[in-house]
Design goal:
With about 350 residues, this protein is mainly beta. The protein folds into three domains: about 100 residues, no CATH class; about 100 residues, no CATH class; about 90 residues, Thrombin, subunit H (Beta Barrel). Helices cover about 10% and strands about 35% of the residues. The strands form five sheets. The protein has a six-stranded antiparallel beta barrel with strand order 6-8-11-10-9-13. A hairpin with a 5-residue loop joins β2 and β3. The chain is flat and about 70 Å long. It starts with a helix and ends in a 5-residue tail after the last strand.
């Protein structure tokens, strides 16, 4: 019996490995060559060749003899060919030299090579706190008053802050606690995280209790009670390697959308109820499914009150670009129909 179970397990693993190793499907209208132009993204170019553009690492292979072969510039020519096993391979031609494309991490400025995805849509979200716990909010320093008896303050104004410890950090970020994020239908006390609404930045002019902070830039009015945290000098990577989730995603859903729109489309930012605890790391690609509507069956004669839930419909693809403990932020890369809050997110079909 144990041997039978063992061989059954091995068979399942082999089948799973075979499925995962299946080559990406080409776009039915793929070109043989494409010349890169300014404004292109790596995702856009891959979409010209592949049905699922996020699978570009499967068709780009590193050439260790070429320095940074994965960098792509306007004017480069991308061509499609096949290896000895018939697997599609993308190559890049630059001048007289032809190299294989690599999915490795970029190491040069993005104002030279084309970006992976449209960075303008997410750049402001890469270096700011987006989600905090109640414990972090309670422990943060806070604005107690504005100088000059102002009720609100903006860039160029001074504010007084209590709770700043030490005098080695001079630059700070201000934010306002926003709405709590919860799982659909969860208990009100089960909070996944709290939105941190960015207010601005400031520099310390005089340390003490309170510390005097000069607001150097603001995106909204600073008020008494705003939280203050040390500015994070560590640059968050703007380079993304798309990949399927590390594990099967169950119960995943869109629980928020930036700017509060009711319908979600391409290049909008959404909040997911899965984070690092669920192995949701940067670059994770997910499929979005619009929840099937429950309708009355007006045809049946057996039960006039009978209802039926329609199947979930595939609505698009998104990619995680910031991940926190229990939530993550993702950019909608493709949208085949309008998406909504509480639509499900799952592992993308690879075949």
């Amino acid at each position: 019996m144990l041997a039978r179970k063992f061989f059954a397990f091995v068979f399942v693993c082999l089948v799973s490995a075979t499925l995962l190793a299946a080559p990406p499907v080409l776009n039915t209208s793929h070109p043989d060559k494409y010349v890169v132009v300014k404004g292109d993204t790596l995702w856009d170019i891959s979409a010209r060749f592949l049905r699922d553009p996020w699978r570009w690492p499967d068709v780009w292979q590193a050439n260790p003899q070429v320095k940074n072969p994965h960098l792509i510039y306007p004017g480069d020519v991308i061509s499609l060919s096949y290896d000895a096993n018939g697997k599609p391979v993308l190559r890049i031609q630059r001048g007289r030299q032809t190299v294989k494309l690599s999915p490795g991490i970029r190491a040069t400025k993005l104002d030279r090579a084309i970006p992976t995805i449209p960075l303008d849509a997410i750049r402001q979200f890469l270096s700011r706190p987006l989600v905090l716990t109640q414990k972090e909010i309670d422990a943060a320093a806070y604005v107690v008053a504005s100088a000059g008896e102002h009720v609100v303050a903006g860039a160029g104004d001074r504010v007084y802050v209590r709770g700043i410890k030490g005098d080695t950090q001079s630059k700070f970020s201000l934010f306002q606690p926003g709405k709590p994020y919860r799982n659909p239908g969860a208990d009100k006390d089960d909070i996944l995280g709290i939105e941190a609404i960015y207010v601005g930045e400031g520099t310390a002019q005089a340390f003490g209790d309170p510390t005097t902070l000069l607001l150097t830039s603001t995106e909204r009015e600073a008020r008494s009670g705003d939280r203050v945290m040390p500015f994070d000098e560590n640059e968050i990577s703007e380079h993304f390697m798309p990949h399927a989730p590390r594990t099967k995603v169950e119960g995943g859903a869109i629980i928020g959308v930036v700017d509060g729109v009711s319908q979600i489309g391409q290049h909008q930012i959404v909040v997911l109820n899965k984070g690092t605890q669920d192995k949701m790391d940067i670059g994770t690609v997910l499929a979005v499914y619009r929840s099937g509507e429950t309708i009355h069956d007006l045809v049946t004669t057996e039960n006039r009150d009978d209802t039926v839930t329609l199947p979930d419909e595939r609505a698009g693809t998104l990619m995680v670009f910031r991940s926190f403990d229990r939530v993550s932020y993702a950019l909608v890369m493709e949208a085949t129909r309008a998406m909504h809050i509480y639509d499900a997110v799952r592992n993308p079909p690879e075949l």
